[in-house]
Amino acid sequence: MSKSFDVVVIGAGPAGYVAAIRAAQHGLKVACIDEWKNHDGKNAFGGTCLNAGCIPSKALLESSELYHRAAHEFKKHGIRVSEPTMDIAAMQKRKAGIVRQLTGGIAGLLKANKIEGLVGHGKLLAGKQVEFTPVDGKPETINAKHVILATGSTPIELKVAPWTDGSIVDSWGALEFDAVPKTLGVVGAGVIGLELGSVWARLGAKVTILEAMDDFLSMADRDVARVAAKEFKSQGLDIKLGAKVTAAKAGSKGVKVDYDDKDGKQSMTVEKLVVAVGRRPFTDGLLADNAGIDTDERGFIKVDDECRTSVPGVYAVGDCVRGPMLAHKGSEEGVMAADLIAGEVAELNYDVIPSVIYTSPEIAWVGKTEDEVKKSGREYKTGSFPFAASGRAKAMEQTAGMVKIVSAVDDDEVLGVHIVGPMAGELISEAVLAMEFSASTEDIQRTVHAHPSLTEAMHEAALAVDNRALNY
Ligand code: FAD
């Protein structure tokens, strides 16, 4: 007899495993299917985020940042050390250890919550049945009262620059280099391209980033993008805007990359090329022809605001549906879907999802940019505070950047907060919470912030919105 579950989740990335845990917390009988295989051939839960995305990239960003600071900043603090050297194998081993611990932790969490973790492929059939094919096993059919699809996304391959083992790689490949390339090309100056470019540039690679768009970080506030561009340039990252790659081919001398820019046809040769031009929803082999699930023209599974698909009882969450491709967005959708299945009222505020770029300085924002507010026609006011005027930032020797707040004139509501500077990814949480509770700018102004802390920059930026900054 085939197995039956209250909820079957397909995909154990941050969207899927979190959905499974929340469903189990409701006392539901849950199975979570995942087929992820690492380069060593071993299966692991955790999806892109834990195995090939958020976590390994942050591990390498931390190592490379420490190396860079040891080489360039220690002297300023009076710390005298001989020239630091980088042991790439040790750096990669540390990263792999973190990934192993965290992915093993997910397996433990599933077990602790009495979720059946099924390693293999899941396919949605008609009538909320799921075909599960274990790794090296025969397909079996599972009955589900509810299904949550959480199959994530995969890197987009450029036809003109096809993956070439070890030379033209995706973001996962760029996390696995066993030596610092002398020259590195990156196609795409988005979040992933900038983070990976930063890692290898800090370790000594000469990095050139080719970006097809004319605007740098078009999704970010213009003031923040301007500061970030200046900082990256001073770090030696060569970011070429309006540069469209027309061909890339690996040869004996490296990868030859042809691109067009405003001056015409250009060419460069690099040791390795990372293609980071975005990700597409991954639904390969997921849906039987008669499953009844609608997808859009870009392949995203169509869902409503509550992540319901076109089939009653089937939800879809995370990167495989519309919205920003971010782990925390997927996790919160997973929680919402599981709560709704359990009969609770649940919703997700899509207007208040923070974005972070873990470069140095970090970049983080939530809500609308100044341009977006301007376009909306609502009267607004802005205030900013530079980290150069923050005592804590000075003590940290990290004074680049600022906090900028955009607020409404009519009711003083905070509409957007944009940060470029130290720990921006942590600082943004205060803004997220404030906006989630529809805080006014005055609410932040009248909130006590610890001294000396980077959070004072948020406080001062809120004061600056009404021309009342105290320390600038
Ligand atoms: P995934 O994490 O992709 O998980 C989907 C899982 O489903 C996978 O394990 C896959 O094997 C499995 N699967 C797919 N189809 C099937 C099937 N039919 N049967 C069984 N299993 C299946 N986001 C952030 O928020 N912060 C960051 O700092 C950040 N850094 C990133 C850095 C890099 C280099 C990359 C590539 C991404 C980064 N992201 C970051 C994005 C983040 O990784 C994704 O948004 C997140 O992983 C999406 O979660 P998900 O659960 O929807 O999908």
Could you explain how this protein is built, in words?
The protein is α/β, with parallel strands linked by helices and 472 residues long. It has three domains: 4-155 and 280-342, FAD/NAD(P)-binding domain, CATH 3.50.50; 168-277, FAD/NAD(P)-binding domain (3-Layer(bba) Sandwich); 355-466, 2-Layer Sandwich (Enolase-like, domain 1). Helix content is 31%, strand content 26%. The chain is built from 13 helices and 21 strands. It has helices spanning 16-25, 47-52, 54-72, 88-112, 171-174, 191-202, 222-234, 327-341, 370-376, 391-395, 424-436, 441-445, 455-465, and strands spanning 4-10, 30-34, 116-124, 129-134, 140-149, 153-155, 168-169, 183-187, 206-211, 238-241, 244-251, 254-261, 264-270, 272-275, 279-281, 314-316, 355-357, 362-367, 380-386, 402-408, 414-421. The protein has a five-stranded mixed β-barrel with strand order 1-2-3-4-5. Helix 1 runs parallel beside helix 8 (327-341), helix 3 (54-72) runs antiparallel to helix 4 (88-112) and helix 3 (54-72) packs parallel to helix 6. The relative contact order is 0.12. Bound molecules: flavin-adenine dinucleotide. Flavin-adenine dinucleotide (FAD) binds next to strand 2, helix 2, helix 3, strand 3 and helix 8.
How would you concisely characterize the structure shown here?
Helix content is 31%, strand content 26%.
Instruction: Describe the strand arrangement of the main beta sheet, using strand numbers.
Output: 1-2-3-4-5
Distance, first to last CA: 72 Å
Structural class: alpha/beta
Total domain units = 3
> Which topology of the largest domain does CATH recognise?
FAD/NAD(P)-binding domain
Q: Going by CATH, what is the homologous superfamily of the largest domain?
A: FAD/NAD(P)-binding domain
Radius of gyration, in Å, reads: 24 Å
Helix content: 25-40%
Query: What amount of the residues lies in strands?
Result: 25-35%
Instruction: List ligands, each type once.
Output: flavin-adenine dinucleotide
Question: Judging by the overall fold, what is the CATH architecture of the largest domain?
Answer: 3-Layer(bba) Sandwich
CATH level 1 class label of the largest domain: Alpha Beta
Taken from the alpha-carbon principal axes, the silhouette is globular
Unreliable stretches (pLDDT < 50, length at least 5) are: none
DSSP, total strands: 21
What is the residue-averaged pLDDT? 97
Characterize the main sheet: 5 strands, mixed, barrel
Helix tally equals: 13
